[in-house]
Specification:
By secondary structure, this protein is mainly alpha-helical. The protein is built from 20 helices and 5 strands. Strand 2, helix 2 and strand 3 form a beta-alpha-beta unit.
C-alpha cells in the first residue's frame, strides 16, 4: 500500500558505514523527505561485501553499530540480501521511492554495478545521485602533465598535496525523517557473518572496536599517543605508533577527509615531519585506488608484464607453513600469527612476510594477496593488491626485486629486544635476546635453558635465506628485459 507521506529517499550504504561526513546521507536529510537507509549484502562479485572471513566479522559488528546510530536519529537500517538492481527495484516498488542516493565506490566490480544500475534507474524515472568522499580525491581526477595516470607515488603525492585540502567534513544529520512504514528488514544474524565453532575470531574484540565511534576513538588515541614520533617509530612493531585506522577506513566508518583534517594545527606539540609522513600513508590508499581505477586487474595480473615469465614454485606445503607461522624465522612467524589472532599485522612486518613468501619461498604474490584478503580485517581491494605488487617488484613504483629482506636482520633491527616475537611466538619467550631472531644458531645449552627444542617445540627454518636469495636473484635475472607496465 502506498505511503501517505512523501516518497522516501533511499540512501544506499556500502563501504561508508558512518553518519558523519556522509554526503549521500547529508543531502538526503537536507531534502526534508523521509530517509530510508539501506544496506545490501550483494554477491561477492559485486565488490561491496566483505573481502574475506575476517572482514565479515567486522562488517557484522559495524552494521550493528550503524543501526543503533540511525535509531538514535529516529531512523532505522533496512537489511537485504541479493543483487543490487533486484533489491533496490523491490524497495522502490514497496515504498514508492523516487530517489536513490549513494557514495561512489572505486573498485572495478563496484563501478560496473553502479554504472549499469544508475543507467537503468534513471531510465525508469528514478533520480540517482552519487557523491564523493571515500577518498581524498577521485581516482580519475589527478593526471600527469601528459594527461595520463600516475605510475609513481612521489609525483602523485605532490600533485595531491598541491591540489588543495580536501573539503571540510560535513556533520552528521541531527535527525532523520522517517517514512510512515518501514519495509521488511532481514535479521543480521541470519547472514552468518560471524565464525562458528571454533571461534577463530575470539581475540578480535580485545583489539578492535568496529563502528563509527570506535573509529573516532582510534583517531583520537593515535593523535594523543601515537602521532608524535610517528616517522621514526612506525617501523617498530612492539611500539604503539600505528593509527589502527585502516579497518575503519576500509568499511568507511570514518572518512579520509576527517582523518586528514584532524591532523591540522598540531605543530605546537607534534613535529611537522610526523604529520606529513602520516598523511603520506593516508595518500598511499588514494594512490592504490588510482592504480586500481586505471588498471582493474591489479589483484590478478602483473602491472609489469615482464614478471609474467617469473618461474614461481608450486609448493603448497611451504605455503601452509607460511600461513600458519611455522617457517622457523621468528619475525615472520610472529607476523603470521598476529594476523590469525587479531586480523591485522604491523605494516613493517607485512613487508617482511611478503618478501619472505615471494623471494625466499618463490611463491606467487597472488597467493599471499588471497590469504591477506581473507584474514585481514582491513582487507582493501586496492591497497592489498598494490602493496603485494610493490613488494614483488611487479607493480607500479615497486621496490626493486633485489630488495630481498633478510628475516633475521629485519627482526634484529625493528624488534631489538624481541618483544614482538615473544608476544606472538610464546614458545620462544624465554630465549636469550641475542638469539631470539636466530634460534637455529643458539647453542644447545641456551635452547635448553629456554625450553626450546628445534624441530619439536619450534620449527627449524624451512629454507636457508642465503641459498634462497641466490635462487631468487637467478630467477629474476632470467626474465626478459622488457619493462612495460600496465
Amino acid at each position: 500500500m502506498p505511503n501517505s507521506s512523501p516518497a522516501p529517499v533511499i540512501v544506499w550504504f556500502r563501504k561508508d558505514l558512518r553518519l558523519e561526513d556522509n554526503l549521500a546521507l547529508a543531502c538526503a536529510a537536507e531534502s526534508g523527505l523521509p530517509v530510508l537507509p539501506v544496506y545490501i549484502l550483494e554477491p561477492a562479485s559485486s565488490g561491496n561485501g566483505p573481502l574475506g572471513a575476517a572482514q565479515a566479522w567486522w562488517l557484522h559488528h559495524s552494521l550493528k553499530q550503524l543501526a543503533a546510530a540511525l535509531e538514535r536519529k529516529g531512523s532505522s537500517l533496512t537489511l537485504r540480501r541479493g543483487a543490487a538492481d533486484e533489491v533496490l527495484g523491490a524497495l522502490i516498488a514497496e515504498t514508492d521511492a523516487t530517489r536513490v542516493f549513494w557514495n561512489r565506490r572505486h573498485d572495478p566490480n563496484g563501478i560496473a554495478v553502479d554504472s549499469a544500475l544508475k543507467e537503468e534507474l534513471t531510465r525508469t524515472g528514478i533520480t540517482v545521485r552519487s557523491f564523493s568522499g571515500q577518498l581524498l580525491h577521485e581516482p580519475s581526477r589527478l593526471r600527469t602533465g601528459a594527461g595520463g595516470p600516475y605510475r609513481v607515488y612521489t609525483p602523485f603525492w605532490r600533485a595531491l598535496e598541491a591540489s588543495g585540502e580536501p573539503p571540510e567534513p560535513v556533520p552528521a544529520p541531527s535527525a532523520l525523517a522517517a517514512p510512515d512504514n518501514w519495509p521488511r528488514s532481514e535479521r543480521l544474524e541470519t547472514w552468518r557473518l560471524l565464525p562458528g565453532t571454533p571461534d577463530w575470531a575470539n581475540e578480535f574484540s580485545a583489539v578492535w572496536t568496529p563502528g563509527e565511534e570506535g573509529a573516532r576513538q582510534s583517531l583520537q588515541h593515535f593523535i594523543d599517543a601515537g602521532l608524535a614520533g610517528y616517522k621514526a617509530k612506525r617501523d617498530y612493531p612492539a611500539l604503539c605508533h600505528t593509527s589502527m585506522l585502516s579497518p575503519h577506513l576500509a568499511l568507511g566508518e570514518i572518512s579520509p577527509a576527517t582523518v586528514w583534517h584532524a591532523t591540522r594545527g598540531l605543530t605546537d606539540r607534534i613535529a611537522a615531519e610526523d604529520v606529513i609522513h602520516f598523511r603520506k600513508e593516508l595518500a598511499w590508499r588514494d594512490f592504490s585506488y588510482h592504480l586500481l581505477f586505471h588498471f582493474p586487474q591489479l589483484a590478478s595480473k602483473n602491472w609489469n608484464a615482464r614478471f609474467d615469465a617469473f618461474p614461481w614454485l608450486d609448493a603448497p606445503d611451504l605455503l601452509d607453513r607460511w600461513k600458519w607461522g611455522q617457517t622457523g624465522y621468528p619475525i615472520v612467524d610472529a607476523g603470521m600469527r598476529q594476523l590469525w589472532r587479531h586480523g591485522t599485522m604491523h605494516n613493517r612486518v607485512r613487508m617482511i612476510v611478503a618478501s619472505f613468501l615471494i623471494k625466499n619461498l618463490m611463491i606467487d604474490w597472488r597467493e599471499g594477496e588471497r590469504w591477506f584478503r581473507d584474514t585481514l580485517v582491513d582487507a582493501d581491494p586496492a591497497s592489498n593488491a598494490a602493496s603485494w605488487q610493490w613488494v614483488a617488484g611487479s607493480g607500479a613504483d615497486a621496490a626493486p626485486f633485489f630488495r630481498i629482506f633478510n628475516p633475521v636482520s629485519q627482526g634484529e633491527k625493528f624488534d631489538v629486544n624481541g618483544d614482538y616475537v615473544r608476544t606472538f611466538v610464546p614458545e620462544l619467550a624465554k630465549l636469550d635476546t641475542s638469539f631470539i631472531h636466530r634460534p637455529f644458531e643458539a647453542p644447545a645449552s641456551v635452547l635448553a635453558a629456554a625450553g626450546v627444542t628445534l624441530g619439536e617445540t619450534y620449527p627449524l627454518p624451512i629454507v636457508d635465506h642465503k641459498v634462497a636469495r641466490v635462487r631468487a636473484m637467478a630467477a629474476y635475472q632470467s626474465l626478459p628485459r622488457s619493462n612495460e607496465g600496465g
